[in-house]
Design brief:
heterodimer, A: about 150 residues, alpha/beta, 5-stranded mixed beta sheet, elongated, B: Rossmann fold, two-stranded antiparallel ribbon, binds iron/sulfur cluster
Chain lengths: ~150, ~160
């Protein structure tokens, strides 16, 4: 199935990027059917990541999905805009690696994935408060787990 | 340290004898977490060869080690582990902070990295560099040996 067909079927909004990778914005409700369709061609989910446009956009988050098709030799980028507290559907039952990638996005940005089997922190320790890659997390605020001999920063 | 006297014997103090024995039998525990580890390996391997300084025998249990080499970035997640490893080492023990990350946190001035391991455990020798060259490490090793040699023993006769 060609990209144009998918573009028409799901009424996606294409944007131009410097790297030339086909990039589309998708509504969060339409993500799951779109990805189910793409799964047959795009065997590999390369990455899930997110961007925080805090104070710059009305919907502060953008979740970015990077796909690779080995059979067609193309890459694809899908973006979903999310507001504070909004959830997006998990893809962990389509691509197994989405499980950990979504946990990382949750850990760093606090974006929750609906239907994720095990949504908890993956990189940071459980007692960590907040999500450090959010723009409103203080840049140099650390949360030590043990009592320190001296203060870290004056 | 000692004086050779007539008739093939040497006089010295017990303190400097102990220091001499300890400084040439450093058993180190490499706590390697990041890129500095490559330079540590280069120092340990045959070209630079820390065995020349009696520090060639690495022990991978803190209970058998004298010197803790903290090599690479220490994150807050890892801090309790480093502290536990330090506490498991038996006295006498020394700590070497290897690389800028262990000294100040280096380029990682953020939520994740500990801003200098001396916030967690006491440090004896700091080796600057990102990563330090093997020569710097050897220089630090010799300085550490000097320090061990000069160390005053804590035993005294109690009444
Ligand atoms: S000091 Fe530099 S080389 Fe060493 S661990 Fe830190 S970043 Fe890596």
């Amino acid at each position: 199935m060609g990209l144009e067909e998918i573009e028409r079927e799901f009424s996606l909004e294409r944007i131009e990027t410097a790297d030339g990778i086909p990039t589309y914005y998708c509504e969060k409700e339409g993500l799951l059917p779109l990805m189910e369709k793409l799964k047959s061609d795009f065997e590999i989910l390369l990455d899930i990541t997110a961007v925080d446009y805090f104070g710059k956009r009305e919907k502060r988050f953008e979740v970015v999905y990077l796909l690779l098709s080995l059979s067609q030799k193309i890459r694809l980028r899908i973006k979903v805009r999310l507001g504070e507290g909004e959830k997006v559907s998990t893809l962990s039952f389509l691509w197994k690696n989405a499980n950990w990638l979504e946990r990382e996005v949750y850990d760093m940005f606090g974006i929750e994935f609906e239907g994720h089997p095990d949504l908890r922190r993956i990189l940071l320790y459980p007692e960590f408060k907040g999500h450090p890659l959010r723009k409103d997390y203080p840049l140099k605020k650390s949360q030590p787990r043990i009592k320190l001999l001296r203060s870290e920063r004056e | 340290m000692g004086k050779i006297r007539e008739g093939n014997f040497v006089t010295t103090t017990l303190e400097s004898l102990i220091g001499w024995a300890r400084k040439y039998s450093i058993f180190q525990y490499p706590f390697v977490t990041a890129c500095c580890g490559m330079e540590y390996m280069a120092t340990a391997a045959s070209h630079f060869d820390i065995d020349r300084f009696g520090a060639g025998l690495t022990r991978f249990t803190p209970r058998q080690a004298d010197v803790l080499f903290v090599v690479g970035t220490i994150s807050h997640k890892l801090a309790p582990v480093l502290k536990k490893v330090y506490e498991q080492m038996t006295e006498p023990k020394w700590v070497v902070a290897f690389g800028t990350c262990t000294i100040t946190g280096g380029i990682y001035d953020n939520y994740a990295a500990v801003q200098g391991i001396d916030a967690i455990i006491p440090v004896d020798i700091y080796i600057p560099g990102c990563p330090p060259r093997p020569e710097t490490v050897l220089d630090a090793l010799m300085k550490l040996q000097e320090k061990i040699q000069k160390e005053k023993q804590k035993w005294a006769l109690r009444k």
